[in-house]
């Protein structure tokens, strides 16, 4: 839908003191309530930036939708690239009009030819009717099918559908477009009610949200995702889940870089170390015949020095290769998780390091984990995407303690994915999901921030179900309660919010998802993940 006002901007202050404004919907619409039947439809599409409110605060669900606004919705839902669209379009649309590329895209595919008059005008601001919507969607959906399917539908399929549905007002359908209307009905995208189909009625904004959501949901339903699990930090309880994965990354090592000119891979100290009993996890990966990568973590402030230190890099790579080549381990590749490069001047150096490492790995795979690039400018996604076999988007840790922004609101996850897709092929992108909770406790003295253990959150949810809601537009579980410690506000990545992130990953056709870390993932989470696993 056309933006009538700027979206809600939330000011985020990073630890560096720099301020960032996110151009996504991070506040709820005042006129879309949890009891509304279209509640999830609106917020899911808003998170994907397919649909917008009429202002930052109001969605206006009963408002009438124009022709151009609905065409924009339909084309945007396809993830069509309209940035370079030119050529034939209705005569009453100038190339500078906001809706021009979407309408031109649809017109060139003959999806809206029935809506132009004898002089070739489209009348973009005219309210769109339900039959026009049905015909447009039917044409669009049929266009995505193979020719035999299209031919059979036009020959007899639509007539069978007409006979089966028997709408009270079916005689009011425009005959020329009835086959396409009935295809949208057949696909379950549009339906009637006790009054009939109401072909001449204008389409409301809430109806538009429902229709487009049904289409997106249908298109994503059959898609599968590869699932990568991070086996790290108290993950032994999930060792039996390794066999259900496409890839496992063992968080057993870190970069040791204390002085210029020297560095090494360390696997024996800190929480990133080879754990006791590692043999069982290694054997599980070998038996499952899945990819098994070694994660190398580093997050110290001198990372920017390391990516300029060729001697240290050479020493580190030699040390890494010795471990990767050790026949005792199951490693088929490496995952580099170097975090904290904020300066853009580090981007080329980091890419050079990764390129050199890739050249040394031979047949071993290279996965690179990258943070959101809003405030970490040292990660050139174009270059990294060209070097790495897989790129894991760490689309989380947006937490801002002052504004109580949780770690992974769906609109920001979506924005992170869209930025990555502009630089990296979708078949290389893995959406990172971090199983975590954010908690704020407020007393008379002020507000304190905590990161509670997952077990503690699960116990709270099981014993005290009151005060739990789905927080939209964040698409995270929201838990509120009071006790002798103060007033609590908690946001939690539960199975419902994970399911919505899986839906987002399927919508964009990503390679898969990863979960950090396996020890925190609950049985309910595994059920949701397993349902979409490839």
Radius of gyration: 26 Å
Q: What is the β-strand count?
A: 16
| Biggest sheet architecture | 8 strands, parallel, barrel
Report the structural category. Answer: alpha/beta
Number of helices: 16
Helix content: 25-40%
Give the overall shape, derived from the CA principal axes. Answer: globular
Distance between the termini: 34 Å
Strand content: 15-25%
Domain tally: 2
Biggest β-sheet: strands ordered side by side in the sheet: 3-4-6-7-8-9-10-16
The average pLDDT is 93
What does this structure look like?
The structure is a single chain. With 534 residues, this protein is of the alpha/beta class. It has 2 domains: 9-221, no CATH class; 240-432, Glycosidases (TIM Barrel). The chain has helices at 39-47, 67-77, 100-108, 130-143, 147-165, 178-186, 205-221, 278-288, 303-306, 310-324, 347-361, 381-387, 410-421, 454-463, 495-507, 523-530, and strands spanning 9-13, 19-23, 226-231, 247-259, 262-266, 291-298, 333-338, 365-370, 390-393, 429-434, 437-443, 446-450, 468-471, 476-483, 486-492, 512-516. The radius of gyration is 26 Å and the shape is globular.
């Amino acid at each position: 839908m056309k933006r009538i006002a700027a979206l809600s901007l939330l000011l985020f202050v990073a630890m560096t003191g720099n301020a960032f404004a996110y151009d996504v919907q991070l506040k709820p619409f005042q006129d879309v309530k949890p009891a509304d039947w279209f509640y999830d439809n609106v917020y899911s599409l808003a998170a994907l930036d397919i649909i917008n409110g009429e202002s930052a605060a109001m969605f206006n669900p009963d408002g009438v939708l124009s022709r151009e606004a609905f065409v924009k919705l339909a084309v945007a839902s396809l993830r069509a690239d309209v940035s370079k669209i030119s050529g034939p379009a209705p005569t009453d649309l100038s190339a500078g009009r906001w809706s021009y590329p979407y309408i031109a895209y649809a017109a060139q595919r003959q999806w809206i030819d029935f809506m132009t008059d004898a002089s070739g005008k489209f009348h973009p601001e005219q309210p769109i009717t339900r039959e026009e919507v049905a015909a447009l969607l039917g044409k669009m959906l049929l266009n995505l099918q193979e020719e035999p399917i299209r031919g059979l539908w036009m020959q007899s399929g639509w007539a069978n559908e007409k006979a089966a549905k028997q709408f009270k007002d079916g005689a009011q359908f425009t005959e020329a477009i009835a086959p396409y209307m009935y295809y949208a009905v057949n696909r379950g995208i549009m339906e009637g009610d006790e009054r009939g189909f109401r072909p001449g009625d204008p389409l409301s904004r809430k109806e538009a949200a429902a229709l487009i959501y049904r289409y997106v949901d249908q298109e994503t339903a059959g898609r599968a995702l590869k699932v990568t699990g991070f086996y790290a930090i108290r993950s032994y309880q999930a060792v039996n889940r390794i066999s259900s994965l496409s890839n496992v990354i063992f968080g057993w090592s870190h970069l040791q870089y204390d002085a210029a000119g020297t560095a090494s891979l360390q696997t024996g100290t800190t929480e990133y170390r080879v754990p006791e009993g590692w043999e069982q996890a290694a054997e599980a990966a070998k038996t499952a015949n899945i990819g098994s990568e070694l994660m190398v973590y580093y997050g110290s402030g001198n990372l920017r020095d390391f990516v300029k230190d060729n001697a240290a890099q050479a020493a580190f790579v030699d040390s890494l290769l010795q471990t990767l080549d050790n026949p005792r381990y199951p490693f088929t590749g490496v995952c580099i998780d170097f975090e904290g490069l904020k300066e853009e001047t580090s981007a080329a150096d980091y890419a050079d390091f990764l390129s050199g490492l890739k050249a040394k790995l031979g047949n071993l795979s290279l996965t690179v984990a990258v943070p959101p690039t809003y405030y970490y400018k040292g990660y050139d996604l174009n270059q990294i995407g060209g070097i790495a076999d897989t790129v894991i988007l760490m689309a989380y840790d947006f937490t801002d303690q002052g504004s109580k922004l949780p770690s992974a609101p769906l609109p920001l996850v979506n924005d992170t994915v869209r930025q990555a897709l502009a630089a990296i092929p979708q078949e290389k992108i893995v959406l990172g999901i971090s199983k975590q909770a954010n908690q704020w406790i407020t007393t008379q003295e002020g507000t304190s921030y905590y990161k509670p253990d997952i077990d503690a959150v699960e116990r709270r949810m099981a014993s005290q179900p009151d005060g739990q809601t789905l927080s939209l537009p964040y698409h995270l579980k929201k838990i509120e309660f009071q006790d002798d410690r103060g007033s609590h506000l908690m946001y939690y990545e539960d199975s419902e919010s994970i399911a919505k992130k899986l839906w987002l990953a399927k919508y964009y056709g990503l390679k898969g998802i990863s979960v950090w870390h396996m020890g925190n993932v609950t049985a309910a989470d595994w059920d949701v993940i397993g349902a979409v696993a490839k």
